[in-house]
Predict the 3D structure of the following.
Amino acid sequence: MTRALYPHERVETVREATAKAGLAALLLTPGPDLRYVSGYDALPLERLTCLAVPAEGAPFLVVPRLELPAAQESPAGSLGVEMVPWDETDDPYALVARRLGVSGGKVGLADRMWAMMTLRFRDAMPGVEQVLAGTVLRELRMRKSPAEVAALREAGEAIDRVHRRMAEFLRPGRTEKEVGRDIHDAILQEGHTTVDFVIVGSGPNGANPHAELSDRVIGEGEPVVVDIGGQMPSGYCSDSTRNYCVGEPPADYRTYFAVLEEAQRVSCEAVRPGVTPEAVDAAGRDLIAAAGYGEYFVHRTGHGIGIETHEEPYIVSGNTEPLEPGMAFSIEPGIYPGAHGARIEDIVVCTEDGYEAMNKTEHGLVVIG
């Protein structure tokens, strides 16, 4: 799986894309860009770790000497990239600049590079214009390979298993924090290496799309929004939202939940090559608005996902870049009237003739107890 996710040819593909974009090089420090290109999940330290991918010439990875063993043991160690260790008294920014030999033009810096490192590179390479590496990498990262889709499928299966265990955790009298701790443990038990987020929004907290776990006690008959996700050993992420009620839910909740369920289905069915993200957003949004709940759908329909939970493409009005096979993103319309709320979220991948959902659990309201 690791070799398929981080193939040897990816570095060469990135180098070719760098040259095509008219950049002299890409400089990638710890973060998602470095992980995507090399598979190296380097520690974000004040000591510089940097993969340099020149438009011409061989790439090289500059690492603190004490981090060299970790770099060699990572997937980057099998890519054939030269590793250049530096010692505590060295200037690694000057080292990168010397080896690149760039005296002008543009260099792409990792989108999440620390400001401290950006400024040090600026001083080390006077006369060089700094731009975002994302101008090159976004086109590659948005289009998932079959191996990446398989990793997202595995992540979807793992988070589905957690949702299927929700009856173990949700019951009246428990606090959101208590339920959240159990879900956190279950996410790890079901195959994730890290937990990225756990949202347990009960009652009025369900009307806050990004509610924090609180000491609020879950009451009988209260709807609960559960939005959970984490990172798998592959480095790829899960993200899924389902809705529960501990006892019989309010009648008005059932009414708008039926609208939401239809809107989520319609949005998913709008996904196919050539369709724009804003058209997918409009499919469900227009239905929700026609039912009288438009003011309560307060966020975009979805976000891309891969080695980050949120990445491109974004499923939102104004995004007119046509969908292509391999693009992966969430479909998660929501309705949040105030006394409670609901959101249904699947991760989907655009296929040659439609879409594939990574999440398979029941979309309807699950009544517990």
Observations:
- The two ends are 41 Å apart (CA to CA).
- The chain has a mean pLDDT of 96.
- The chain is about 35% helix and 20% strand.
- Residues 156 and 358 are 5 Å apart (CA to CA).
